[in-house]
Design brief:
It is a single chain. The chain is mostly helical. The chain is about 65% helix and about 0% strand. The chain contains 19 helices and 2 strands. A two-stranded parallel ribbon has the order 1-2. Helix 9 packs antiparallel against helix 10 (about 160-170), helix 15 runs antiparallel to helix 16 and helix 16 (about 280-290) packs across helix 19. About 45% of the residues are buried.
Length: about 350
């Protein structure tokens, strides 16, 4: 019977895989961490050691209280400065007290400290810098997101964490970056538990607006759980994980396909759908992602996507390469949906857990 099943599966894959591939952006058109139309010119100028576009961009987000965009831009600019910081040095030389330049500097310093063997000690040394950045921007939640990340690595206790969290939500009650930072602190990998993380994420999602990315916070908690072990360890029922996925699917469907704004949430959702074996829904989510692959979660993928009996060598060699990991997972999804689609089915198949290819 196993040989017969294998032969039937191979026949289904040969028949349906090409048609299923037609719903995806071609591999060569997939972009990794593509900047939006506002950030791209700032990065081009930074490559030429010119900080002015970055300074104007961050000033605009600060003046307009565009906190979600501001958080993304600060993180991306600090990532760029990690290897090419001449532009940031020029900016600081010209405006040493500029709150935006100091925020990027603090973000960069925290990243470098996190990578040090003496992480906790180096992070503690940065406390005055982070405090100064927060004081210079009394309305801005982004320094407090950075402070929450700093507190986690510096082994700050729950009292410190709760104080920082109160400052963050006072400035922006539903800021996605601050919620992710808090969720990490409360995770089982750090100072909480899987149950505590889910409780926090679900309450935050309940309180958020319908189009807020915070609505997808429970699927981030699900990702953290799936990263460290099986979903049936007893701390969080599998049904709770699937409810988190269902909630994120509703949020994703509310945005246009190929929209770069929810790209990271959609990539995260696709990863969890693959982990849960929800193949048809995963295929639809990869279609919504379009060309916008993100390093997270694929850079950190632990290689737990089930081994592919089909010829996808990318799946075995993708560890550490987020773009290859994204493409390998997409290949896997297409193969799994094809293998589960009856030979006589001339459509793509119905999505959902109730049809073939669900759980």
């Amino acid at each position: 019977m196993s040989l017969l099943r294998a032969l039937v599966g191979a026949a289904r894959s040969a028949r349906h895989a090409p048609r299923l591939a037609a719903g995806f952006v071609p591999d060569d058109d997939v972009l990794l961490d593509a900047p939006d139309e506002r950030l791209a010119p700032a990065l081009v100028a930074a490559a030429l050691a010119d900080p002015e576009p970055a300074a104007k961009l961050l000033a605009t987000t600060r003046d307009g209280s565009e906190w979600e965009d501001r958080d993304r831009y600060v993180t991306r600019l600090a990532t760029f400065a990690y290897n090419r910081d001449e532009w940031l040095t020029h900016w600081l030389d010209a405006a040493p007290r500029d709150p935006d330049a100091l925020l990027v500097t603090a973000q960069l310093a925290v990243r470098r400290a996190w990578e040090s063997p003496a992480r906790a000690e180096r992070l503690r040394d940065l406390a005055p810098l982070i405090g100064a950045v927060a004081e210079q921007a009394p309305r801005d939640p982004v320094p407090w997101r950075l402070a929450l990340d700093h507190a986690r690595g510096a082994h700050a206790g729950h009292t410190v964490f709760e104080s920082l969290w109160a400052q963050a939500v006072r400035r922006s009650p539903h800021h996605y970056g601050c919620h992710v930072a808090a969720l990490k602190y409360l995770s089982a990998q750090w100072y909480g538990s899987h149950r505590a993380a889910f409780d926090f994420a679900e309450q935050a999602a309940d309180d958020a607006a319908e189009d807020s990315l915070v609505r997808a916070l429970p699927v981030r908690a699900a990702y953290d759980l799936l990263r460290v072990g099986p979903a049936d360890d007893g701390s969080v029922p599998a049904a709770r994980i699937d409810r988190a996925v269902d909630r994120a699917l509703v949020l994703s469907a509310a945005f246009p396909a190929g929209d770069p704004w929810p790209a990271e949430v959609r990539n995260l959702l696709a990863y969890v759908l693959v982990e849960r074996g929800r193949w048809r829904e995963a295929r639809e989510e990869f279609g919504r992602i379009g060309p916008y692959a993100t390093s997270f979660p694929w850079r950190a993928a632990r290689g737990s996507v089930p081994e592919d009996p089909s010829p996808s060598s990318r799946l075995r060699s993708s560890r550490g390469d987020p773009l290859l990991g994204f493409l390998a997972a997409r290949d896997r999804v297409r193969a799994e949906v094809a293998r589960r689609t009856p030979l006589w089915d001339t459509g793509v198949g119905r999505a959902g857990r109730g049809g073939p290819g669900g759980h």
